[in-house]
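Side project, low priority. Logging it here so it doesn't get lost.
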Amino acid sequence: MMATKTSRSSWDVRIRQEWCKGCEVCVEVCKPGVLEMDGLVAVVAHSEACTGCLMCEMLCPDFAIEVVAQEGAPEGVCEE
């Protein structure tokens, strides 16, 4: 099951919860705080804060996260 949450964002963050093993890597690397843990799986908590940096998608060891640009989305910005 693919869980998606969108709210006034240029980015759709999708998590395949059945693939998530709860390692929390995505939650730790997400500087804007888009993701959080719900028990043993990551969930999208604040999709409107997503900058499209793709760090969560790139570092997920289980390929459980996909970040998709919506029409008119700016290029991703990875803030340090």
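Brief comment: The longest helix spans residues 25-29.
Revisit when time allows.
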